[in-house]
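Entry for 2-acetamido-2-deoxy-beta-D-glucopyranose complex. Fields follow.
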Amino acid sequence: MKFLHLATLATAALALPSDSLAARQKKTCTSPKLRKSWAKATATEKRSYINAALCLATKPSRLHISTHRTLYDDFGYIHAQLTEPQRIHGEPVFLPWHRYFVQVYEDALHSCGYTGTAMYWDWAADWAAPSKAAVWDPVLGFGGNGSDSADGNGPGKLRVVNGPFRSLHPTYWNTAVDPHWLSRDWAPGHPEGGQAEMIGNAYSPTVMDEVNSWTVYDKFWPALETSPHGAVHAGIGGGRGDMGPVSSPNDPIFFLHHAMVDRVWWQWQQKDPQNRTFAYKGVRNDGQNATLNDVLPMLGLAPDGIVRDYMDTNGGALCYIY
Ligand SMILES: *[C@@H]1O[C@H](CO)[C@@H](O)[C@H](O)[C@H]1NC(C)=O
Ligand SMILES: *[C@@H]1O[C@H](CO)[C@@H](O)[C@H](O)[C@H]1NC(C)=O
Ligand SMILES: *[C@@H]1O[C@H](CO)[C@@H](O)[C@H](O)[C@H]1NC(C)=O
Ligand SMILES: [Cu+2]
């Protein structure tokens, strides 16, 4: 679960590292690709994306681990390994690490014939009725909630029984080898307790305004990570779905969720590009101050990255906009 305790944040003012900005401006990204909302993509684009996401489960793993079957399994495995012990959440690297991870996934889709870009689920637009969102379409989407009555999935997991991903069979649950059918357990609403279906109230316009109102990175990132980000995981995963445990990239919706998290960050950066593109500050889980030279580990799925190269979506190692 990803509602993280963030008590140790530094509150010092933001400083722009001018040396790194100068270095980055030497690189160019002449025609950035536009990442689209799933709801606004064409049927052809959606079909092509879905086919490539399914194709990942037919490609060999890039890791040399006997329990792995496919490239699809690599994503859930790596995310789990980097979360226990914690190296990618609850610290400043949360945003650039997941930005790089989404790009690695987009590149993997390309290796499966997809020619488009990563897409996002605009959950901030769908917060009032998340279960009705276009992303859950059973044909041109990711299918819906899991089912109580679907058997053959072991205890505590609700198999997704519709949509193109109903035959996905991830290997890991958290860090354990525990093969199962893809699962979801959408959190029901509790109107009497003021909680909306799929915890939509935690990514409402009111919450998004609060998140976006922070002007420094070490306030903005934890606000984004804790509430909207954590609530979307918990809202989809519940207690018995793949989006809950640390192997959450098992659910292909993970990458549309994290592209949206990335888009919220990108929009925040765009409000003051001079100050915010390379704004990166806070205390790491090892107690040290974060720096733009910090490493983004990918454990062999892709080369390790450096934070600096993933701050600007329009330069360095990246070339896209939202
Ligand atoms: C840029 O950030 C600095 C430090 O936080 C701040 O003093 C300055 O006002 C900001 N500039 C703009 C144009 O917002
Ligand atoms: C999802 O399905 C589970 C199992 O039937 C159910 O308990 C839960 O209420 C459903 N969630 C929503 C939002 O419908
Ligand atoms: C982190 O940076 C602050 C200043 O922003 C400094 O006071 C503190 O000592 C640094 N911490 C470490 C562990 O280097
Ligand atoms: Cu994560």
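NOTE: The longest strand covers residues 33-34.
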